[in-house]
């Protein structure tokens, strides 16, 4: 699983800071998460093949999280894209994109599907045999969702020595790896656990931006391999965080600690602070390990 | 008059090529012309003070000419802008911007005025005592306008020696500079031309993008100081230019020659060509001088 940060700053732009966009590579999928203005150029810089992106997840409809989407879709069209594209985001996203394309007298010649989100409970929005994606209800100034990307549990690993000892025909091996017990000719039932080892643990990545502190999400986030949690402010500005629907670095770390996640990645920094180190320092008083998202940085999870 | 090219490439982005946006400084005004995705970052790079931009002119509603506008307006709002903002562009632009702001549950606290354009004849869309702005009807795949920015003619220059010779009271000087004749006490009429010199010639800048070859505009463009004309293609691809509603470098030069402009600036290059020099070479077979727009370049006109 590889996460590439295309942009991780909050709304007002500086010359070299980009608004939120990430690419998650998971089990052969390439998911684009949020799409702030300029994302298509950053995708080019990161040498991501546009055609591999088939699913785009938009957390909320503030400009710094989705104003790059119309341009990306227009570029897909200009490049002669054929592959279908699925967009998951708050209700209204279809109307916005449709209007912008209509004003340009264009439409896509590739299949474009909108999956508009409205509920405030976690729901499964994508699932195949390899990956499941759920929403994470966030609390911001507008309707917002985070996203939990989880590998499906892998198949169990065959204990070949045991299987041969019990003289099990090779044609049953796949069933055993799928978790089935085996009934021998004499009627004896061999529990699957005698014949297999646990699979490699399924990894997961949770994206939480933009949001105020939402401890209710701890049960949903429990044990995720990596948690990205916004930290727009430091705790000295907790009042501003509360007022604007954002979190502090300390609050992000509190969520990470309570959820017992594997690692915490901070991002969505206000540009009022002169360095990023202060966010890491503050979070590490509560939880470790803490990493800082930075434009262009890659995390192998 | 100073023109800054923020971006000058056609639609599909490369890592370091930006879509169309220009800033024209004319008689104290700072006009933004088109606003492709990422314009706000380029404005930052060019150290343009956002508050000085009070008028934005959008040629047409293809993404590479206006998808940077919603983000720029959102940033103006975040920065606490107070000054009014006027946007001139095709009908539909108000609906688009309004919807995007509404989806983000925001509106501007500064006065935002839309001047929607619909006619296919040239019309005056802005005028004050220093500058007049007219539309230039273009022919593209969607409704499109270029813009002609012209300094108002300056006042005539007083011939102080002549004025003193005729013993003219100083209180008449402003009237004389405004072009009035003078009646002496004995009834003699002194023609203004005896007392003044011609003013400095008023400069003008014409922006024509995107458009196919429109020779009908020659009378409107006659004698402009500087003409920016798109040259998406070279003449070897004249069929593509015709089909997509664009011009070749040679066609841009034909317009410049017939209009007897002071200088031609080419731009809106297709990324299919490996260098820009070929556009200049082709145009110079018809007209000189030719300059190449390049991202970040400034022209003092």
Automatic annotation (TrEMBL), chains A, B:
InterPro entries the UniProt entry points to: RibonucZ/Hydroxyglut_hydro (IPR036866), RNase_Z/BN (IPR013471)
Cofactor binding remark: Binds 2 Zn(2+) ions.
Catalysed reactions listed for this entry: Endonucleolytic cleavage of RNA, removing extra 3' nucleotides from tRNA precursor, generating 3' termini of tRNAs. A 3'-hydroxy group is left at the tRNA terminus and a 5'-phosphoryl group is left at the trailer molecule
Keywords carried by this UniProt record: Endonuclease, Hydrolase, Metal-binding, Nuclease, tRNA processing, Zinc
UniProt KW Hydrolase keyword: yes
Active site: 64
Cofactor(s) needed: Zn(2+)
Residues annotated for Zn(2+) 2 binding in this entry: 64-65, 210, 268
Documented EC number(s): 3.1.26.11
The UniProt record lists the keyword Glycosyltransferase: no
Residues holding Zn(2+) 1: 60, 62, 140, 210
GO MF, one example: 3'-tRNA processing endoribonuclease activity
Family designation: Belongs to the RNase Z family.
Function: Zinc phosphodiesterase, which displays some tRNA 3'-processing endonuclease activity. Probably involved in tRNA maturation, by removing a 3'-trailer from precursor tRNA.
HAMAP family: RNase_Z_BN (MF_01818)
Subunit structure: Homodimer.
NCBIfam families: PRK00055.1-3 (NF000801), RNase_Z (TIGR02651)
Name of the molecule in the record: Ribonuclease Z
Organism of derivation: Imtechella halotolerans K1
Name of the encoding gene: rnz
